[in-house]
Amino acid sequence: MASKRVLLLGGHGKVSLLLTPHLVSKSWHVTSVIREASQRDDILATVKDQPGKVEVLVSSIEEVKSKADAQEVIDQSKPDYVVWSAGAGGKGGPERTQTIDRNSCMYFIQAAADTPSVTKFLLVSYLGSRRFKAPWWTTEEWKETQEVNNGVLKNYYPAKLASDECLTAQTFDRASLQAIVLRPGQLTDDPATGKVSLGKTKARGKVTRADVAAVAANLLDSEAKGWFDLLEGEEAIADAVNRVIKDKVDCVDGEDVEGMIRDFS
User: Fold this and answer.
1) Least enclosed by CB within 10 Å: which of 60, 145, 177, 220?
2) pTM assigned to the model
């Protein structure tokens, strides 16, 4: 694949720091958006002796208050692909979660959808972000998921769900823009395993951030589109990505896509 330009939103996050070297190793150009200039060296340290290039853009995603604000960042970085791996991280209370995880994310989705040169948007979400029971889950799994979503994640859940649905709706009739929603389970800082369960997984489980990053890089470098749940597993990452593409796996199954289009188009 020819060299691509990637806008990485939330560049100093743990997954993003692990994703950046994967992207640069493909000779891609990455614009990594960070909140503070002091984070610059951490980004650059991940890509020494790699064939691609990293450009660090200091810009607060929290200050993106409109689609026009998001469009300015996209126009400045001129990406082919956009990756959202940002979030409030539970800091700053419900209002900040709403501002970043929902509003800012949706502004970037809308701006990307209106930018013809952007052909892929990968959104890092989480496994429990869905409105209805996944048809492959048990009733007990769905009950446990709802308890978590309406309990400890009561602010995060609706914000992430809205963003997932917005991306799906905004790209539904746009064949030129691939929407990829990567939905990992509980994240750990364990070393990469190189093996995962990707697609229609169990409702609960763990996965390393390093494997999430590797899966994200593989999905970006493929024809994949849709929702993909992700847990630790036994299948090699490249094989897992090829399988979900070949079998047309999409974990949006069971969700109200027409409702998403009505609410977010």
Assistant:
1) 60
2) 0.97
